[in-house]
Design goal:
With 171 residues, this protein is mainly α. The protein is built from six helices and four strands.
Length: 171
């Protein structure tokens, strides 16, 4: 009888342990209110660190401007399919997503002579180019919708100086 009781105790402890592990695996990630775009892949940051208001974009901007967020979270978060970015439309807050640097593997920004002859896809292999293309496109669409110039109060930032707090890059 003592042997059966011992097995039941072990089985109960195992089941509880599995439940805790499974809950941890499927609970998702905490979504921070503000994310500093400060990737460790960069040896040195030459511009100010961009602070991204993730929750404000998810909630406030997306809810007030659904036409700019047709793909939901997929406006920013995407997967690669045959060399093309495919929006991850069904993401929910807390879903686990890969850091951008896993696909946009080259730290830095390529422009000018270095970028000459590269396709847009090749340029987006550089993380900063991918950010700039994604963010600027949406920000310009927002400003156009709101009839704002980039220097107007309430306009979405579209220049390096506005985002990084430093000097504008010539593009």
């Amino acid at each position: 009888m003592a042997m059966k009781k011992k097995y039941w105790i072990i089985a109960a402890i195992t089941a509880i342990s599995i439940l805790f592990i499974a809950t941890g695996l499927y609970a998702g990630k905490e979504v921070k209110d503000v994310i500093k775009l400060e990737d460790k892949a960069y040896e040195k940051h030459t511009k100010g660190i961009v602070t991204f208001s993730h929750k404000k974009h998810m909630k406030e901007y997306a809810e007030k401007n659904p036409e700019l967020y047709k793909n939901g979270c997929g406006e920013c978060h995407h997967a690669d399919k045959d060399g093309k970015a495919v929006p991850l439309k069904n993401l929910k807050e807390g879903d686990d997503v890969k850091p951008c640097i896993e696909c946009h593997k080259k730290p830095g920004y390529i422009k000018g002579k270095e970028a000459r002859g590269l396709t847009p896809e090749q340029k987006r292999e550089y993380q900063a180019n991918a950010f700039h293309d994604n963010c600027k496109g949406c920000h310009k669409a927002y400003n156009k919708k709101m009839k704002l110039k980039s220097k107007d109060k309430g306009a979405a930032p579209v220049t390096c100086k506005q985002c990084h707090g430093g000097e504008d890059e010539k593009e």
